[in-house]
């Protein structure tokens, strides 16, 4: 259960479907060997709105659970009925949670064996907890408690490593933990010490600023005394308090050559050149733990900072790396990408991207380059992550996801991204060594020059660019593989809903499934939002949800607890990135129902046909309209609904469209 709830015999793993027996099993397993009252079990399975026959229905769920155990020959672990509730016998050999607790107990007072035991315990975790369990109660009350258990163990591991002077070995773990828990001052202090002791003073101070900003904005308080004193110690160049290594802080280091002055933006005035990766969201990069992700956009916290817990090989006892020396066989894990559980669809595109990334580097030294473009919400980042995992063995130095724009669409300077990559790479991943070159995903690129300058400043084995723009200028100069993503095929949309909700629920209401996927325009982000809401409302009929959705489309395609999971915000952001004439043209063209031709567009925009063709070309490049057939374009029905809704809020579409669209675009944004 330390991940999706599953059953394994040591060889095969069966991930259980999101169903009521799965919720019942999870409710018993989070309290192993304890009597769980029937009232709590009913609440875990049905929530607050329990059926009138809840008592009999719970007994039916128990029966189904016993049949499941019999199917996998584990009758000896059968659910036991006792007075007032049920219990499920378990031990450390049958339940990974108890095995985790057994290892952590053994580690206490184990001396030199403590670190390997704790690492072994962390290795049992394999992704967000109980993502296939549709129980609001468990995700609210139990999952945070279990996650806290892992966090305490991780904090102890990092404390031991820091005391032994192996600061580089904890950087990846601490990046992940501080981004998942941005208010945790103890972890932030450990990360600051580790960064300072490997010569990254600027990044250590930037980490303090990140925590201070988060605490002030979210809680209205300043960091505690420990962090404030740590900042002062770093500013003075003193050895900060805490576990002290045998070696003094080394001089600043650089793993990649500094970019030439002509090939990169200068560092911004408010950020040091050695820039700490910004955290654009206080949440983990993954969607909420109760929402499995396939096409859901990951957080723009750098995903390379959120790997799965490293294996025990990271605790090999190798000495701390210092400038001018490289430890032999240090085994330090490179940066890792988040997984995209249950990725669905895009079969052809994924195969093409995997094939391209598996090929040889161009000319033996230039990186393998690919561009994945498409409109907002089309799953560009999810596809890039999925393909990157499939070719991970070809890039042993690791893989990193680097955000290339801010929440407001402001382009990120290439040198900041290059500095972040230098901070993440293990020391052996130096440029000019093809076997050790990493794979990098440059996410949400705004301008071709961002990619060009990043390539000039770094040595990578492969670079996958995701962008809402077509980046034709980059294609012309660098010749990457190009993948253009549009809406999913109807069968892919149905498969996405099935992967989240289960075959039984989807098959039961085929008409409602069709209505939902059509309402979503077969846009992955919209489908994921619908699936997430339905997953947390297991009693809701799909037809009822469809009717509710259509009463206020697309405003209801948003999850209240995560601004990244919002179709209106995604489309509003896409329009804000456009010059005003183009955004206005998009709103006016939404009044055309069906195919869009140049003559129709010219009439709708009150411009010449030549200017209309220019407008359509720009909107096509921005992913806001798509090719329908030769000579005709179309606007996705969901995008059209949003544009009409937005025009209505503004009191109707604009009265005129500026015809000099080509002059309103930034240079190179073709």
User: CA-to-CA gap between the ends?
Assistant: 48 Å
CATH architecture of the largest domain: 3-Layer(aba) Sandwich
Report the CATH topology name of the largest domain. Rossmann fold
Rg, rounded, reads 26 Å
How many beta strands in the DSSP annotation?
A: 13
Task: Provide a count of the helices.
Answer: 26
The oligomerization state is: single chain
Strand fraction equals: 5-15%
Helix content: 40-55%
Could you characterize what this model shows?
- With 670 residues, this protein is α/β, with parallel strands linked by helices.
- It folds into five domains: 1-145, Arc Repressor Mutant, subunit A (Orthogonal Bundle), CATH 1.10.10.10; 164-246, Tetratricopeptide repeat domain (Serine Threonine Protein Phosphatase 5, Tetratricopeptide repeat, Alpha Horseshoe); 334-482, 3-Layer(aba) Sandwich (Rossmann fold), CATH 3.40.50.300; 490-538, no CATH class; 578-664, Orthogonal Bundle (Arc Repressor Mutant, subunit A), CATH 1.10.10.10.
- Helices cover 44% and strands 8% of the residues.
- The protein has 26 helices and 13 strands.
- It has helices at 20-29, 38-46, 54-71, 96-107, 114-122, 136-141, 143-163, 171-180, 185-197, 201-219, 225-236, 347-357, 380-390, 414-424, 448-457, 472-478, 490-501, 503-508, 510-519, 524-535, 542-550, 567-576, 580-589, 598-605, 609-621, 637-649; strands at 6-8, 13-15, 36-37, 80-82, 85-87, 368-374, 399-403, 439-443, 462-467, 481-485, 595-596, 626-629, 632-634.
- The protein has a five-stranded parallel β-sheet with strand order 7-8-9-6-10, with helices on both faces. The protein has a three-stranded antiparallel β-sheet with strand order 3-5-4. A three-stranded antiparallel β-sheet has the order 11-13-12.
- Strand 8 (439-443), helix 15 (448-457) and strand 9 (462-467) form a beta-alpha-beta unit.
- Helix 9 (185-197) runs antiparallel to helix 10 (201-219) and helix 10 runs antiparallel to helix 11 (225-236).
- 47% of the residues are buried.
- Residues 244-333, 428-435 and 653-670 have low confidence and may be disordered.
């Amino acid at each position: 259960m330390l991940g999706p709830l599953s059953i394994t015999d040591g060889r095969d793993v069966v991930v259980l479907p999101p169903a009521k027996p799965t919720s019942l099993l999870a409710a018993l397993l989070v309290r192993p060997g304890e009597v769980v009252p029937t009232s709590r079990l009913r609440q875990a399975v049905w929530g607050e709105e329990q059926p009138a026959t809840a008592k009999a229905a719970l007994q039916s769920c128990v029966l189904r659970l016993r049949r499941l155990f019999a199917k996998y020959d584990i009758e000896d672990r059968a659910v036991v009925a006792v007075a007032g509730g049920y219990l499920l016998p378990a031990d450390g050999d049958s339940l990974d949670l108890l095995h985790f607790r057994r290892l952590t107990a053994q580690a206490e007072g184990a001396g030199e064996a403590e670190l390997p035991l704790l690492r072994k315990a962390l290795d049992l975790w394999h992704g967000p907890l109980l993502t296939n369990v549709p129980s609001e109660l468990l995700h609210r009350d139990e999952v945070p408690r279990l996650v806290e258990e892992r966090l305490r163990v991780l904090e102890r591991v990092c404390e031991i490593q820091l005391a032994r002077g192996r600061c580089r070995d904890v950087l990846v773990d601490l990046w992940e933990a501080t981004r998942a828990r941005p208010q945790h001052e103890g972890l932030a202090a450990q990360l600051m010490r580790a960064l300072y002791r490997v010569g990254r003073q600027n990044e250590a101070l930037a980490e303090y600023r990140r925590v201070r900003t988060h605490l002030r904005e979210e809680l209205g308080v300043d960091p505690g005394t420990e962090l404030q004193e740590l900042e002062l110690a770093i500013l003075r160049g003193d050895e900060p308090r805490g576990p002290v290594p045998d070696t003094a802080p080394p001089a600043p280091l650089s793993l990649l050559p500094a970019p030439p002055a002509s090939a990169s933006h200068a560092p911004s005035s408010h950020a040091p050149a050695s820039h700490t990766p910004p955290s654009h969201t206080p949440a983990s990069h993954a969607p909420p733990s109760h929402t499995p992700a396939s096409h859901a956009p990951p957080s723009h916290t750098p995903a390379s900072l959120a790997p799965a817990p490293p294996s025990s090989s990271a605790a090999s006892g190798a000495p701390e790396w210092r400038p001018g020396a490289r430890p032999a066989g240090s085994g330090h894990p490179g940066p890792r990408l988040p997984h995209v559980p249950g990725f669905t669809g895009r079969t052809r595109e994924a195969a093409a991207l995997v094939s391209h990334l598996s090929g040889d580097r161009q000319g033996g030294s230039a990186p393998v380059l690919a561009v994945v473009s498409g409109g907002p919400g089309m799953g560009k980042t999810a596809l890039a992550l999925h393909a990157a995992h499939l070719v991970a063995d070809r890039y042993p130095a690791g893989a990193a996801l680097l955000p290339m724009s801010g929440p407001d669409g402001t382009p990120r300077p290439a040198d900041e991204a290059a500095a972040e990559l230098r901070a993440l790479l293990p020391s052996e991943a130096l440029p000019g060594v093809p076997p050790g070159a990493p794979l990098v995903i440059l996410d949400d690129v705004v301008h071709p020059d961002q990619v060009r300058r990043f390539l000039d400043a770094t040595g990578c084995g492969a670079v996958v660019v995701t962008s809402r723009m077509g980046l034709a200028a980059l294609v012309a100069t660098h010749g990457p593989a190009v993948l253009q993503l549009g809406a999913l095929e109807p069968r892919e949309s149905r498969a996405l809903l099935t992967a989240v909700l289960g075959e039984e629920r989807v098959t039961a209401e085929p008409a409602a499934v069709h209505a939902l996927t059509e309402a979503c325009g077969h846009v992955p982000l919209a489908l994921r939002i619908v699936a997430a809401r339905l997953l947390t409302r297991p009693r809701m009929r799909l037809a009822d949800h469809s009717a509710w959705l259509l009463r206020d489309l697309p405003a209801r395609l948003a999850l209240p607890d995560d601004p990244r999971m919002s179709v209106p915000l995604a489309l509003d952001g896409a329009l804000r990135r456009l010059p005003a004439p183009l955004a206005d043209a998009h709103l006016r063209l939404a009044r055309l129902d069906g195919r869009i031709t140049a003559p129709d567009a010219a009439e709708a925009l009150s411009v010449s046909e030549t200017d209309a063709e220019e407008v359509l070309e720009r909107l096509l490049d921005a992913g806001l309209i798509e090719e329908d057939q030769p000579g005709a374009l179309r606007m996705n029905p969901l995008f059209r609904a949003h544009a009409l809704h937005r025009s209505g809020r503004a009191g109707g579409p604009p009265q005129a469209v500026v015809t000099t669209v080509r002059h309103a675009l930034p240079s190179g944004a073709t």
